[in-house]
Write a structure and sequence with these properties.
This protein has 427 residues and is of the alpha+beta class. It is built from 19 helices and 13 strands.
Length: 427
């Protein structure tokens, strides 16, 4: 079995995982040791903010009802430092949890070093083709599936219907019409607001900018055999970057907003300083209720070039994997069946997430629920490489998008960006 050392500054942890994956005990088989195995306990790690207390209790009670005498123990983890903690815990036959929530940009890093067991045979049981396609792809290595979609945060468009009407702008049906609409809205500035922006779009919002670029046909990189090849210099990506630069100039006044400003960007919408946001469904809960009550907020999918077809956007979220060193792999699979059952999947949707099984996405509350399923089905992720997020990630993206926003030559920037990608993803 061949594994690669992919985490910078963490060779020891990765080596331990690799050795665990290649040990005499096959991944996904019980070692038969430990108190958890004897007591029938399944340990599930979830990240802070993922599940409400009610949802956690639902899982615990439902698992106990379906598996008398056994227990599901949920342990909430912090995002800060989670990669190092996973390295240590997943490599240990005594300390490893059984099931792990893992961010979708981190998934490939761990699946490629033997941290998770092969669970390909569970696909149909857990949802089959209605599981979020891009998340399944991110969890697939050499044709085998090592994790399944837990939940996603779909990205769509919130817009001020009253401002559009005052400016005489129709709701855009294509991405080209969308570009024109935000530029025209900024130029019109119906309420005469100082520094008004047609749309909030900031270089530091890498997921928002990435979604905008994806809808225009942009690609970060593609795989040619075993080699990743940067695609920022492709004709389609150059065209997308040129459109992005034009929108930074003509469609927003927030191109160089700070990270602190971006974290609460919905306030600009609430204060009337912008008429359009690209955001996840939960942003709707942060928009002033008065605007909703006055019917001044509309929700649409970010369009593609084809009317009626959503554009590709970035979908944040998490996967869930069965640890290769699980003490109770068969019982853990029973827990996965509960997690992907209709009851819990519906609960996830009701709490504002797009559930891993898109068959239940219509349970997402509010107007965003009407588009969530289609948005996620058409979503894209960053390159499915173990190096993404380790050797390449937010720092490089922030720099790249900021330089585009400042008006630097797009073709030269794209060429340099591709060289960075090629070097980072092919280590």
């Amino acid at each position: 079995m061949k594994f690669r050392k992919v985490l910078m500054g963490a060779t020891v942890g990765i080596t331990a995982l690799a050795l665990a994956g290649c040990s005499s005990t096959e991944p996904g088989t019980s070692t038969g040791g430990g108190d958890d195995a004897a007591s029938g306990t399944v340990r599930l790690w979830v990240m802070e903010g993922s599940l409400s207390e009610d949802s956690q209790n639902y899982l615990i009670d439902e698992f106990a009802e379906q598996n008398p005498g056994s227990e599901l123990k949920i342990e909430v983890q912090q995002w800060d430092g989670i990669v190092s903690k996973l390295q240590t815990s997943l490599a240990s036959k005594n300390e490893s949890p059984d099931l792990v929530e893992i961010g979708n940009t981190q998934t490939t890093t761990f699946t490629t070093v033997g941290a998770f067991a092969d669970v390909t045979d569970m696909k149909e049981t857990l949802g089959g083709d209605t599981l979020i396609p891009s998340f399944v792809d991110a969890s697939t290595v050499d044709g085998k599936i090592y994790a399944y979609p837990f939940y996603a945060g779909a990205r769509g468009v919130f817009y001020r219907t009253d401002l559009f009407e005052a400016a005489g702008i129709e709701v855009p049906q294509t991405i080209e019409e969308f570009d024109s609409a935000v530029a025209e809205l900024q130029k019109s500035n119906p309420e005469g607001v100082e520094d008004f922006a047609g749309m909030y779009l900031a270089a530091v919002d890498t997921h928002g900018v990435g979604s905008y670029l994806f809808a225009h046909g942009f690609e970060y990189a593609k795989k040619d055999g075993d080699t990743w090849v940067g695609q920022a210099s492709s004709p389609e990506s150059i065209a997308a970057l040129e459109t992005l630069q034009k929108t930074f100039n003509d469609g927003t006044t927030f191109a160089l907003d700070s990270q602190a400003g971006q974290k609460s960007f919905e306030r600009y919408f609430n204060e009337g300083m912008t008429g359009v946001l690209i955001g996840t469904g939960n942003i709707g809960t942060k928009i002033d209720q008065e605007l909703w009550d006055a019917d001044k907020v509309g929700v649409i999918a970010l369009p593609s070039s084809t009317p009626g077809v959503p554009g590709a956007t970035f979908a944040g979220g998490s996967n869930i994997g069965l640890a290769a060193n699980s003490q109770n792999p068969e019982l853990a699979k029973k827990a996965l069946e509960v997690i992907f059952g209709e009851g819990f999947q519906t609960r996830l949707a009701e709490e504002g997430w797009v559930s891993g099984n898109t068959a239940y996405s219509d349970a997402v509350t509010g107007p965003f629920g009407e588009i969530a399923g289609d948005v996620i089905t058409n979503s894209k992720l960053t390159p499915n490489s173990p190096e993404w997020g380790v050797s390449f990630g937010a720092t490089q993206l922030n720099e790249f998008f900021t330089r585009v926003a400042k008006g630097e030559d797009v073709k030269a920037l794209a060429k340099d960006f591709d060289e960075q990608l090629d070097a980072a993803l092919n280590k």
